[in-house]
Amino acid sequence: MAQIEWIFPSSVDEALYALSQSGHQAVAGGTTLFDLMKLGHAVGPVLVDVSKLPLTSISQHDDYIHIGALASNSDVAKSSLISEHLPALSEAILSGASEQIRNAASIGGNLLQATRCIYFRDTSWACNRRVEGAGCEALQVPTSGHAILGTSSACIATQPSDMAVALLAMDAIIVAQYRGLNIRIPIADFFRKPDQKAMPLNTLPVNALITSVEVPSGRMQAKSGYLKLRGRASYEFASASVAACLELDDNKISRAAIAYGGVGTVPWRDVNAERLLLGHIPSRNQIDLYLDRVFEHAEIRPETAHKVSLARGAVHHMLERLAQ
After folding, report:
1. Segments of the chain assigned E as strands
2. For 280, which of 110, 138, 228, 286 could close a Cys bridge (C-beta 3.0–4.6 Å)?
3. 98 with 127: CB under 8 angstroms?
4. Per-residue pLDDT tens for 61-112?
5. How far is Cα of residue 252 from the mean position of the Cα atoms in its chain?
6. pLDDT, position 28
7. What is the pLDDT of residue 32?
8. Residue ranges per structural domain of the chain
9. Angle at CA 159, nearest 5°, toward 153 and 160?
10. PROSITE patterns in the record, alphabetically (predicted)?
11. Which residues on neighbouring strands pair with residue 183, listed in sequence order?
12. What CATH code would you report for 1-51?
């Protein structure tokens, strides 16, 4: 690996100044970055270690729960505030990795993690996410882990975060500092689907620093859950996953939010399709109508065809669980 210089800012302002310099890159837990460095990905040459900044609190104010961007995944998942008011978030994080990784990984870093597509990670393959305009090997030889929603001629890699799927179902807001200003990005607008280009991966301004995540805390978020389906139980990335929030009145669905992981180039949610559930008892037929709408434009290949049935089954299971 190339020689790397480290900077250790003591305040957010110092960190932002360092990140504004050419070639400077933020690192917190480093659970993704260090792996990529070992695989030969370009990093640095200056790493700005933000892990000691005072951005670790978890608190509730008004109708929102505020989660510091440097709170560890373990601390968030085990927080009584999270497990009581945002159970899907706790379940998603606990399904995401080993405890050792959760102890090191940060909430902000989780949102910014790179895809696990094998063609991205192995620098001997062509990848538009690694080198813009290089091409996409996955289009020629897809694997069972590639996406079926939000794909393009530039990229079919899935977004790997479990946590982001739960946050999408809960209408979370990403809070960042940029050029002296606080900016707020709804998570539905944070991840960027690839079009003719695979980059950028998100709408966070270059050199901005995520400082917190705000999640609405209400009746619907409290009745939520996360289900992850994967090839093995030992910390594998999702073949398909679902996070759902549900609110019932007189046994009929009055509000619903359903997000998917493992199937899209971004965490996936179809708000228009969710309207098909409103005012109905959560019956198998009504849920199937909703699912038909969600997957009607899926780009299915023989290697990824199993994802549709997995996702459909996960939704039926989750909504049945929440409706009880």
Report:
1. 5-7, 24-27, 46-49, 58-61, 64-68, 173-178, 181-186, 209-216, 224-229, 240-249, 252-261, 268-269
2. 286
3. no
4. 989 999 999 999 999 999 999 999 999 999 999 998 888 889 999 999 999 9
5. 29
6. 94
7. 84
8. 1-51, 58-112+162-216, 219-323
9. 145
10. FAD_PCMH
11. 176
12. 3.30.43.10
Secondary element (H or E) of residue 323: helix 306-323
| CA separation, residue 192 to residues 151, 202, 268, 285 (Å) | 11, 5, 11, 32
Q: What is the mean pLDDT of the chain?
A: 94
Q: For residue 52, give both structure tokens.
A: 């000691």
Low-confidence ranges of the chain (pLDDT < 50): none
Cβ–Cβ < 8 Å for 72, 31: no
pLDDT, tens digit, 9 for 90 and up, residues 222-251: 999 999 998 766 668 999 999 999 999 999
* Integer Cα distance of 111 and 162 in angstroms: 9
Position 197, amino acid = K
Question: What is the identity of the amino acid at 142?
Answer: P
pTM assigned to the model: 0.95
CB count, 10 Å around CB of 46? 16
Residue of 215, 6, 21, 36 whose CA lies nearest to 109: 36
